[in-house]
């Protein structure tokens, strides 16, 4: 399992130089993951990395997790790893940081490359699974490396510095896009929590109000209930108050006589049975 960034002079490359220098070559593959390696190159180095990631992927597969699919965009500037549907850049491996690339001759579906991380300066081995294009992808990366090296010689090294600046700006843009996505997700979570809180508190208030209303009715009904007999009924809606000077006024008797009871209340005392007080001078 070994293929470096070189190609015999008697054989031609697969793509035109313009396709890799002005555009990119896309491929679809399954991404097994990346792992840190001790050396920037070597057959045994990538073989150990492949074995390690295959084992980890086997465990995840037994748990029901599928191998994620990615899109590779290969150009003279590097290899981008994107999510196929959203086109979100997951990894941007600059070409001058890639030190080794190989496809597995024992397992023709597997290909790898080693890239030095721009932040941690650690060497990471990226492992992919492609059913039909593993060797072709490896050769395409080798062709991109060959074209980039020629361009470096023609420009006297100035082009490399320009690409580094561009790569730095691209990395900054990627970080900002990631941060923006995280903020959007956080705002969405807060909106969902607020919506759940509103839905959960509204029925509670309604239930409390109904309970209070029921308690009030029980309190008012028990206020007039007698413990010795049937519940009396007090009807005060027919009480009439007449002026003092009216002929029908009974205020001179010193009494306010309620209307006749309809529910078994005792009848009012007749006015003849009430003795009138006598005043003696």
Automatic annotation (TrEMBL):
Q: Which residues form the PID domain?
A: 27-155
Q: Tell me which GO cellular component terms the UniProt record holds.
A: cytoplasm
Question: Keyword set for this entry?
Answer: Coiled coil, Cytoplasm, Phagocytosis
- Localisation per UniProt entry: Cytoplasm
A biological-process GO annotation: phagocytosis
What is the protein's name according to its record? PTB domain-containing engulfment adapter protein 1
Kindly list the organism's lineage: Eukaryota, Metazoa, Chordata, Craniata, Vertebrata
Q: Which domain of life is it from?
A: Eukaryota
What Pfam families is this protein classified in?
Answer: PID
Query: Quick one: where is this thing mainly located?
Result: cytoplasm
| Key word NAD present | no
Query: Does the record's keyword annotation contain Cell membrane?
Result: no
Q: Which residues form a coiled coil?
A: 159-200
Please state which protein family the record places this protein in.
Belongs to the ced-6 family.
């Amino acid at each position: 399992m070994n293929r470096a960034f070189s190609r015999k002079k008697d054989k031609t490359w697969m793509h035109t130089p313009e396709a890799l220098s002005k555009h990119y070559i896309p491929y679809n593959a399954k991404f097994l993951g990346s792992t840190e390696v001790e050396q920037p190159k070597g057959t045994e180095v990538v073989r150990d990395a492949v074995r390690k990631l295959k084992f980890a992927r086997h465990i995840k597969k037994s748990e029901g997790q599928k191998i994620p699919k990615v899109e590779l965009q290969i150009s003279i500037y590097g290899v981008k790893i994107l999510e196929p549907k959203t086109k979100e850049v997951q990894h941007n491996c600059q070409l001058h940081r890639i030190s080794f690339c190989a496809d597995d001759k024992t397992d023709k579906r597997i290909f790898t490359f080693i890239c030095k991380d721009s932040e941690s300066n650690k060497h990471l081995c990226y492992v992919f699974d492609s059913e039909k294009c593993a060797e072709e992808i490896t050769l395409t990366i080798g062709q991109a490396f060959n074209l980039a090296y020629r361009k470096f010689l023609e420009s006297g090294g100035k082009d490399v510095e320009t690409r580094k600046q561009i790569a730095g700006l691209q990395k900054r843009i990627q970080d900002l896009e990631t941060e923006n996505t995280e903020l959007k997700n956080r705002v969405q979570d807060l909106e969902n929590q607020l919506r759940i809180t509103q839905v959960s508190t509204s029925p509670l208030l309604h239930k409390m109000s109904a309970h209070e209303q029921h308690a009030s009715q029980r309190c008012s009904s028990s206020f007039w209930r007698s413990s010795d007999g049937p519940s009396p009924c007090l009807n005060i809606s027919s009480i009439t108050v007449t002026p003092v000077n009216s002929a029908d006024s009974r205020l001179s008797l010193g009494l306010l006589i309620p209307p006749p009871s309809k529910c078994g209340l005792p009848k009012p005392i007749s006015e003849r049975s009430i003795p009138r007080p006598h005043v003696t001078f």
